[in-house]
Structure formats: C-alpha cells, structure tokens
Design a protein that fits this description.
Helix content is 36%, strand content 0%. The protein has 69 residues and is mainly α. It has a domain of 28 residues. Helix 1 runs parallel beside helix 2. The chain starts with 23 loop residues before the first helix and ends in an 8-residue tail after the last helix.
Length: 69
C-alpha cells in the first residue's frame, strides 16, 4: 500500500551559511539544490570530482549558469 505525502506549507526563505567539509555526495546535492533555487547560490569547498563536474556540465546544458571563482 503506497502512502502519499502532502506538503501544506512552503518553506520560508533560507538565507544562512552552512559550513561542512567537501565530499562528492554533498557537492552533487548542492548542485541539485542550487539549480532549483531562485537567484544566486554560492558553494564553497566543493569536491571537484568527475561526478560533480558532470553534474555541473549537465545543468549548464539545460540552461543554468555557473562559474568557478
């Protein structure tokens, strides 16, 4: 039997900094979340593995903009 999850309220604006050590899983998740955000997102200490770079290339192909500083 499947259960359906309904989210009634939107999350409030998130304008905070989170500091975590870089690893592949978190870096790819940041790419995924940043691609869904409205406005600019800044990521620091990302692990630049081949998987993370592939995720960045994918989102560039579908129209997201990114640059390495």
């Amino acid at each position: 039997m499947s259960k359906i999850l309904f989210i009634k309220n939107r999350i409030k604006d998130f304008n905070k900094k989170i500091k975590v050590s870089g690893d592949k899983s978190l870096s790819i998740r940041w790419v995924l979340l940043a691609s869904q955000a409205i406005g600019k997102s800044k990521g620091y200490n990302l692990l630049m593995s081949e998987d993370v770079l592939a995720a960045l290339r994918f989102y560039k192909k579908i129209g997201s903009k990114s640059k390495k500083i």
